[in-house]
Specification:
This protein has 16 helices and 7 strands. It is of the alpha/beta class. The protein has 2 domains: 86 residues, no CATH class; 292 residues, Glycoside hydrolase/deacetylase (TIM Barrel, Alpha-Beta Barrel). The chain starts with a helix and ends in a 9-residue tail after the last helix.
Length: 404
């Protein structure tokens, strides 16, 4: 092979390697002047050590790629290599189910972070040292910035958004993230979010709910959070089918999985126990949009004392079946702040103690229960599907032939 042929072959190989590295996200210098027609003005590969390309060599390369024989071949080859490299660069585990057949997996989920400092401090410690594997943050609340800062400093933390449309405590209130004049049905006469779910359903429209939920997601993203999931404070987004459709639609749009259950008898049983009334078509929406669902959800237990509550939760843990299970807890410290915020402070303090207790971890280990968070569910989520408002509403509009 003569010197010219060697130069041409080597430079072409470098070009292919360059395109593959670009798609796989490796450190390279960009290809400048590449167009879909296949012409390349200059080629630059980031390699260790000095390289010398004389002007004559570069001119020969330009001539080679400008030849009528090369553009189509080069374009098709680079396209094929781009697709192959993209497949190779896909996040590991993206095709792996969150729970293997016959495996019992458990998400221990703490709600209400961001509500106050006591909840934040307990939640952060439970995530770092206990068996709490995931948590969600209330964006409208005064202590949201503290959690957003912590999330930026702990990018591997499994944090979602606790979409909040109510403000239920008597002496500690918050308003919407969106401007009040854009969501008048969501605010009470004092300018705060309504205290009861029933009042939200009675006064707010689905359009107003969408404006507020979108504002909360956008504020979290602007604060540097990368939510692993969405869920709903006090179940408000499950209290109306119109609200639920907003919840699922925005989950699909942002590519962030909404906390839902897989369609089936278990889902209907859990929803009935929690007073949720949705059509079968609405229940099927998450699966239709590629949103992964839980196999079972436990929203809380009874028990006034530490021992009573611990026994109740241990009974739940003993009863877990194969699949992806989630239990919802609330954690806080034992301090004046939380005691002045909510009458349920003792339950929150006890649940913090239970789920940072080594005995609880030992129980899970003996039962062969694998702890997980929402990140594997996020990896199963279909890519974001931004859509015009009209198209989105058309896509998830109720079907006339669905049995209600």
């Amino acid at each position: 092979m003569d010197s010219r042929r060697r130069i041409e072959t080597k430079t072409c190989r470098e070009t292919f390697e360059l395109e593959t590295n670009r798609v796989a996200g490796r450190a390279i210098r960009p290809v400048r002047g590449y167009s879909s027609a296949g012409s390349i003005d200059s080629v630059s590969v980031d390699r260790t050590g000095p390289r010398d390309h004389s002007k004559s060599q570069i001119e020969k390369v330009r001539n080679m790629f400008s030849s009528p024989r090369f553009p189509t071949f080069l374009g098709l080859t680079l396209q094929a290599m781009s697709l192959a490299a993209a497949a190779a660069a896909k996040a590991p585990g993206a095709e792996t189910p969150p729970a293997a057949p016959g495996e019992t997996a458990l998400i221990v989920h703490a709600d209400d972070l961001g509500m106050c400092h006591s909840a934040n401090a307990a939640g952060m410690k439970a995530l770092e040292t206990g068996i709490v594997t995931s948590a969600s943050v209330m964006v409208p609340c005064p202590w949201f910035p503290e959690m957003a800062t912590w999330a930026r400093r702990h990018p591997k933390a499994d944090l979602g958004l606790h979409l909040t449309l109510t403000s239920e405590w008597e002496g500690y209130r918050w308003g919407p993230v969106a401007a009040r004049d854009r969501v008048p049905g969501l605010v009470d006469p004092d300018g705060y979010l309504w205290g009861r779910v029933a009042d939200v359903v009675r006064h707010a429209s689905a359009d107003e709910v969408e404006v507020e939920v979108r504002a909360q997601i956008e504020r979290a993203l602007a604060a540097g959070m990368r939510p692993t999931h969405l869920d709903t404070h006090m179940g408000t987004l499950f209290a109306s089918e119109a609200f639920y459709r907003v919840y699922i639609r925005l989950s699909r749009e942002y590519g962030i999985p909404a906390m839902t259950l897989k369609p089936g008898p278990v889902t209907r049983k859990v929803m009935a126990a929690n007073g949720v009334k949705l059509s079968e078509e609405a229940i099927a929406l998450p699966a239709r949009y590629g949103i992964p669902g839980l196999d079972m959800l436990y929203t809380g237990v009874e028990g006034k004392t530490y021992d009573e509550r611990k026994a109740a939760w241990f009974k739940v843990l003993d009863s877990l079946r194969p699949g992806v299970n989630q239990i919802i807890i609330h954690v806080a410290g034992n301090d004046p702040e939380i005691q002045h915020v909510t009458h349920s402070w003792r339950n929150r303090w006890n649940e913090f103690r239970i789920f940072t207790d080594p005995e609880t971890r030992d129980l899970l280990r003996k039962r062969g229960i694998r702890l997980m968070g929402w990140r594997p569910m996020h990896e199963q989520m279909s890519p974001p599907r931004p859509a015009g408002r009209g198209q989105a509403r058309k896509d998830d509009a109720p079907k006339t032939d669905v049995t209600q």
